[in-house]
Design brief:
69% helix
């Protein structure tokens, strides 16, 4: 049997991740079927297991690909830029990617927060580069005196992430909805209103 080239493996993996994001968005984690994901990617049944250990591993890797896409979308920002500009750049990239994958994002939030899922640790990548970047921005803001000093880096980072995630959840609730474009300004402005030095 011929070996699969690295380029083909990379392409197959990307196709499986895209098909999985669609399947999870439509059917949820437990309703999505591995064979259907393989077939939707144009591959043979069970091919998913050549790339991922389990459905939960596949779900976690779809989230990791989402995080990588945000990092790739972000515009470079000057080292001397104020904290507000840095936070705006992060959220702007996040909302661009959110517009591309919003159905999966809704499912990801629901599955991670669902008690039926078991442990969120099983579904969320061990490390989120975005979290680390937000922490670095908060640390810089504290060093520069741009953020209030009575909160720790972790507290500030968690508050900022909660503002973004809370607004996204609010967007998905019934009734008047926020636009993705509005979330950036609301999250950054309201966070900084309470966090500035």
């Amino acid at each position: 049997m011929p070996r699969v080239s690295e380029a083909t493996r990379t392409e197959n993996r990307a196709r499986l991740l895209a098909a999985a994001a669609d399947a999870f968005a439509e059917h949820g984690l437990h309703g999505a079927r591995i064979d259907d994901i393989s077939l939707a990617a144009g591959l043979a049944k069970g091919t998913v297991y050549n790339y991922f250990d389990s459905k939960e591993h596949l779900f976690r890797e779809v989230i990791a690909a989402w995080q990588e896409r945000i990092a790739a979308c972000r515009e470079a920002i000057d080292e001397s830029a104020p904290i507000r500009d840095r936070l705006m750049a992060i959220v702007a990239a996040d909302m661009v990617v959110m517009a591309e994958i919003e159905p999966f994002a809704r499912t990801a939030f629901r599955e991670v927060l669902s008690p039926a899922t078991g442990s969120a640790v099983e579904l969320v990548p061990a490390s989120d580069p975005l979290d680390e970047e937000i922490r670095a921005i908060m640390e810089l803001g504290l060093k520069r005196g741009e953020l209030r000093a009575d909160r720790t880096v972790d507290e500030l980072a968690q508050l900022f992430a909660a503002a973004i995630n809370g607004l996204l959840i609010e967007r998905w609730l019934p009734g008047p909805t926020l636009k993705l474009d509005d979330i950036r300004n609301i999250a950054v402005d309201h966070f900084l209103d309470g966090a500035v030095a």
